[in-house]
Amino acid sequence: MLELGMDEGLHSWLVGSVSIGGLMGCLLAGKLADIVGRKRASLVYFSINIIGWSLVTFSLNSRMIFCGRTLHGLGEGMAVVITIIYLGELTQERHRGGAIASLTVAACFGIALAYLLGVFFTWRVSAGMVAL
Predict the structure, then answer these.
(1) Is 5 left (phi over 0), alpha (psi -120 to 50) or beta?
(2) Fewest CB atoms within 10 A around its CB: which of 2, 12, 41, 113?
(3) How far apart are CA 77 and CA 81, in angstroms?
């Protein structure tokens, strides 16, 4: 992060910016899903995630990476809410618990994969791969 002119204090805020965006996403997602529907709301959070990760990948300064991380958090917060609602509506009642629990397992594997990418690639390359 030295290439973006960030000190340790700013780096801490950068890590936390995903949580700030995630909180906003959780608060907005339910209403958005009610207004535009579950499928369209899913397209919205996918788009926000792609834009966020793209900003992180191609960031030229600390503002761009902060915006990208916050947008990524917004999209992820929305994804948690909308995906659970949508999956709960699609699955039969007897399979609902297992189906929704599988979301947590998938999220854990995704996070582990992102960390694994960070071992082998630079942060920019890893962010670009996650955006895809």
Answers:
(1) left
(2) 2
(3) 7
End-to-end CA, the chain: 22
Say how far apart CA 103 and CA 87 lie, in whole Å.
Answer: 9
The residues, ordered by sequence, that sit 6+ positions from 33 with a Cβ below 8 Å of its Cβ are: 41, 81, 82, 85, 86
Per-residue pLDDT reduced to its tens digit, 36-50: 999 999 999 999 999
Cβ neighbors of 66 (< 8 A, separation 6 or more) are 13, 14, 17
Question: Which amino acid does the sequence have at 39?
Answer: K
**What is the pTM (predicted TM-score) of this model?**
0.85
